[in-house]
């Protein structure tokens, strides 16, 4: 799940939101300002309801972020790199740079999120009791009660035993420990996610047919996103099966032509692009070391009259901003770097020397081969 809008970093972790959460933001704000708040505490100016609704939704999103940060902090403590957090319709996703090494680690990382949401709900419930005891303004009490309730719902919903929800990851950890097979446990938990998504969609359609329009639409949306995400988990299982044991060196295109950093764009196009009409070119320095990567799209951004006086070095993306790997790295481990690379290319370096390049086409070829052969190159046979 990739973000549509990047918000910034928290504790050094990139945080973004998926477009689905922007829809949720608007619907929650509208529902509070135009429905729940006036009904629960009538008589206030409309502007106050809109302001209170905005505060409540922002506070809820802060709780959602706390839920995901809890996952990220525990994951880091367990030695798992955290690539980022994306908030979306079903709560959020902490993108980890690897798989948990044991079922126990999986369980600890999964449980802490719902525990955080339920803890926030409990704190909200205590605060609501205190505010009620001191007869605080009614609108404030209503908002606190709403926040406590929605955090409780979030925590309990995420405990449903269906991937990609936290409860699905708990289920996967339990099955993984029982069966000793992570891929089999993932497939079973994702299957539960598909079934749960289908049930939610069915309940939503029944609700719409019964006249419960808003609630029915919510269930359909939740079910649709859960179904889609669970199917992605199933696809991920298949990808991991096909690429198990595959190394970067097995799939890379070897001996790519590196272009000199000191030539002009005009010389590059006339003497290199014409001879090797590829879309991407590694860039080398005078000593042969790789210093960056240049693409055709970058070259096209240089005005034609500037080609004779523009060096390739000034156009290329520096090596520090390019995805790299070693030939012996597991292909599965570097796929996230390839997927998020601006150039969709991964340079393969062996002790600093360029030995290959990996593109999405190379990965697709490996997947096609993996469909025909099992782990380690053995042909799959029917039982």
Write up this protein:
The chain has helices spanning 19-40, 46-77, 103-133, 138-157, 166-179, 182-209, 213-243, 248-251, 265-273, 296-300, 312-315, 331-340, 360-372; strands at residues 5-10, 13-17, 82-88, 91-96, 253-254, 259-260, 280-284, 290-295, 317-318, 324-325, 346-350, 353-358. It has 383 residues and is an alpha/beta fold. The strands form 3 sheets. A 4-stranded mixed sheet has the order 1-2-3-4. The longest helix has 32 residues, at 46-77. The radius of gyration is 26 Å and the shape is globular. Residues 375-383 have low confidence and may be disordered.
SSE topology:
Layout: E1 5-10, E2 13-17, H1 19-40, H2 46-77, E3 82-88, E4 91-96, H3 103-133, H4 138-157, H5 166-179, H6 182-209, H7 213-243, H8 248-251, E5 253-254, E6 259-260, H9 265-273, E7 280-284, E8 290-295, H10 296-300, H11 312-315, E9 317-318, E10 324-325, H12 331-340, E11 346-350, E12 353-358, H13 360-372
